[in-house]
Design brief:
Elements (H helix, E strand, L loop, with lengths): L1 E5 L3 H12 L3 E6 L17 E4 L6 H10 L4 E3 L8 H9 L3 E4 L5 H17 L6 E8 L9 H13 L5 E3 L8 E8 L6 E7 L4 E7 L4 H13 L5 E3 L1 H5 L2
Parallel strand pairs: 1-2, 1-3, 3-4, 4-5, 5-11, 6-8, 7-8
Antiparallel strand pairs: 6-9, 9-10
Helix pairs in contact: 1-6, 4-5
Bound molecules: NADPH dihydro-nicotinamide-adenine-dinucleotide phosphate and ligand LZUJQKHR.
NADPH dihydro-nicotinamide-adenine-dinucleotide phosphate binds next to helix 1.
């Protein structure tokens, strides 16, 4: 498979290594300094583009790939205000795969989080909050993964209707505390507190390898696909 890497930062470089180890060819690398090279003509013989840039650039990059009819795998977070426009493009024949977190562990953790929220629903003595910790270079807050976890709680718990990135005393609000520290790859914890105890679940990434492998597996799934896909399609969760 011939891959275009759009964004050659921490994730782009990790993905390049895993893609090569799995026998793929990197046909094009686009980063900030050569971003004007991302034109449909340069994508002519590319099977799939993997996009990890930043919230401001992601959507424009998708559109260029769509024009070239190249399916996109994207892990960039913080651009979801445009998700309906991407879904429209997918309905008209383009292929797009998005995950706020590509690691197998986090996707299992998403399911565990939903099950725990459902289990807690009848027990009003417990209230939840969330903490996410990432490296100091992260641009968006809270993390995309934290938002997916919050949505999982809100869908499965009748007393939580929204999340806020602050301490809240309102029962219907789920507090998310985002911390930035050193080089932390990504840690997410959910705690259900009562007056007498607490239940805590946590996913802690040791490195970016799990995210990068998931993105390459998604890229292997995508050539010739049309429509909007996510980790549930890949992992059959
Ligand atoms: N879904 C998941 O599993 C994961 C998602 N992420 C997300 O992926 C994104 C990237 O993360 P990460 O690799 O750590 O970030 P980095 O900042 O290390 O890398 C992003 C790269 O994109 C470059 N870039 C900026 N603008 C453009 C552009 N218009 N076209 C092409 N390249 C551009 C940046 O260049 P410059 O530095 O010069 O600006 C940088 O090299 C973030 O949104 C992060 O939240 C991260 C890990 C896992
Ligand atoms: O920026 C990062 O580093 C990460 N971003 C993703 C997110 O926002 O959830 C995934 C992972 O936590 C690392």
């Amino acid at each position: 498979m011939k891959i275009a890497l759009i964004g050659y930062g921490k994730m782009g470089k990790e993905i390049e290594q895993i893609a090569i180890d799995r026998g793929h060819e990197i046909g094009l690398i686009i980063d900030q300094e050569n971003q004007n090279d991302l034109i449909p003509d340069k994508l002519k013989d590319i099977d799939v583009a993997i996009e990890f840039t930043n919230p401001k650039s992601a959507f424009d990059n998708y559109q260029i790939c769509f024009e070239a009819n190249v399916p996109v795998v994207s892990g960039t977070t913080g651009w979801l205000d445009k998700i309906d426009l991407v879904k429209e493009r997918c309905q008209s024949g383009n292929g797009f795969f998005y995950a706020s977190n590509f690691s197998l562990g986090v996707n299992l953790f998403f399911e565990l989080n939903k099950k725990l929220a459902k289990l807690m629903a009848p027990f009003s003595e417990y209230n939840a909050d969330m903490e996410e910790i990432h490296h100091i270079h992260k641009l968006d807050s809270p993390s995309g993964t934290a938002i997916t976890l919050a949505e999982g709680i809100i869908e499965n718990h009748p007393r939580k209707t929204k999340w806020i990135e602050a301490a809240s005393t309102k029962e219907d609000e789920l507090s998310i505390f985002a911390k930035r520290h050193g080089a932390v790859p990504g840690t997410h914890s959910i705690t259900w507190h009562s007056e007498v105890d607490e239940i805590n679940i946590q996913h802690l990434a040791y490195s970016r390898k799990g995210f990068a492998l998931g993105a390459v597996l998604a890229a292997e799934f995508m050539p010739k696909k049309k429509g909007f896909f996510g980790m549930k399609d890949l992992l059959n969760l």
